Each structure stands twice: as C-alpha cells, then as structure tokens.
Amino acid sequence: MNVDVAIIGAGIAGASLAAELAPHCSVVLLEAEDMPGYHSTGRSAAFWHETLGGPLVQPLTKASFGALDAGGFLRPRVSLEVAEADTVVLLDKLEAQFSRSGVRLTRTDHDGVRARVPRAKPCLVAGLVEEDCADIDVGGLHGACLGMFRRYGGTVITDARVSNMVRDGGAWRIEAGSTTIKAGIIVNAAGAWADIVAACAGARPLGIQPMRRTIAQVRVDGDDVPADLPLVMDIAGTYYFRPEGPNRMWVCPHDETPVDAHDAAPEELDVAMAIDRFETVTDWKVLAVERKWAGLRSFAPDRLPVYGFAPETPGFFWCAGQGGFGIQTAPAAARMCAHLIVGDAVSIPDAVRPHSFGPERFA
Length: 363
Hints:
The protein is of the alpha+beta class.
C-alpha cells in the first residue's frame, strides 16, 4: 500500500487528525490493538474546561469548543476547584493565570461550595467555579472522527503493531503486523508508546512518559446526589469526583504514576485512596465499588503536547504528549497539525500558536 501519510495510533489524536487530512491526501491509520482507542481514549472521563493544561493549552481548548458543541458531544456541567485552608493560595494562582483569558471564574466561600456540593465538609473553605464547562461524549466523538475518515476513503488497519520503519528513497517503508506500507510522512500518534515508535523510526525520543490514572464508580448512601453536581477537583491535585447517575459517583485519586507503556489496570491502593479522600471532604459514604479501571496519560517533560515535524528526522511528525487534555483539544489540535502537514488547505484556528508545541523545543 502506498499513501501520503501513515498515522500510527487510532486513539482520538490519530483519528481526529486522520479525519482532517483525508480530504486532502491519502491516509492510512494503523492501530496495534484489535480496536481503535483501546488504551487511553476508551478509558477517559473527559471533561471540557479551559483551565486544564494551563494558559498555553487554553487556546486549543477554546478553539475546539465549536466543533464539539456542534457535533452534540458536550453536556453542560460546572466545574468547581475546592481548597482547604492551606491551599487557598493555589486558587489565587489559578485566578491570576487566567485573569485576562476570558475564562469565567467565580470565587466562593464554604457556603458557596456547600450550595453546590450538599455534603461538603467544613474543611473545604473556598472554591473557584468555572462556569462554562461540559462533560464530553468521548465514544461519540471518537466514532465520528473515524466515520468521517472512512467516508473520505481513509483506511483503518487494526492488529497492525509497527515492527520496523526505514527511510527508503525519500519515503518510509513501514512494516505493521502483516502489512507493508510506503508513506511519505509518518505521524506518531501512539500515545504512551510514542517514544518507542520514535526509536523504531530512528528518531530521537523526547521523554514522553506514560502515567497511570485510576477511576472507580462507587455507590453512595442517601438519595441527595444532585444531577447537576459539579465536577469537583481538589486545587492541590489529590482527588476529583463527579456524579454518574443516581447515588453514583466517579472518584479518582488524581494519580499520575509513571509506568512503562502497557495495558493499565487499577491498583487496589489507588482505588482505596480515591474513596478515602472523597469521604474525607464530604459526608457521603461509599457503600460499594461497582467498577474500576485505569488508563494511561502521556506527558512530555514540560507537560505540553508535542506537535510538529522532528527537525532531525525527515518526514517524521509528532502528535503526542497530550496528557489529560487530548480529547478536549482534539478538534483544534487536529486542524493545526493538518495545516503543518498539508499547508494552507487547512487553516489554523485563531489564537493557536503551533510554535508553542514544536518538538524543536527539546533540541
């Protein structure tokens, strides 16, 4: 098979970029597993909120809102960063970071926190409400990207783990599973495996570190979990929780445990920590753990995503290190990357600055 672009990894990063590129060039999407989005995308509790990732990522998040909203992938939900007495200063810092960004942030005291979280304990002395947030239908978004890609004639090949990549006459020869492909450009959208893929191509790894994140769905006592309960996040980054139906919560210890790329599974200690932290700051009691899972989030050393051509390896393009904000930024990031690959046939969203994310920053 001969194509212009071969994208390695069919999670949301690879799928959204494939959908953007397919109208302009021939593309194949290679996935090592037997289904796209198995490791990270399919296990994400994604949420659209502009402060996640910091001020440099916020333009990508904001520029993605229109496509996510128009596609019907968003369900409005407020987010609430909460603080104890010794972490209130972190609320000040977050407010200052986004003071000129247009993000709607409202400071509140304990009474305000309790008005939104009816069983909040007195230790939660303050909060910062981010008004314009939403749950994301991850499966719907990912499926829509793959569907658009296929409608433009794109090919998805599963069970195609890349075993060899060689530069051959100005193009790449790729061996993936039982398939051999010749491509002008390789896009490394391999998530937790991004550095492994880079090394396979002879490109310099950038230190993309996979980290395990754990979530448990729990059943709680009482019948007072509001349907509009915010996504509640500890400003110090030690837990978050959100409602998931009547008397159900998703609880997370906000873990970022460095691991090798693998099929992640939840650790009992992480689940126990999530429950303990949830019960420490609220009066809800966990009656049962109904399910639990873990996924991999991957970060570059500076915790910003990496988008762009490797300066030392012709035809090798990075689309990796999206951390916990890859889904909420996917539409704008895909357009930006498509522009870098095919030029002005795809426009860059306003306020997005590709140079902030280029791999050359690690030279």
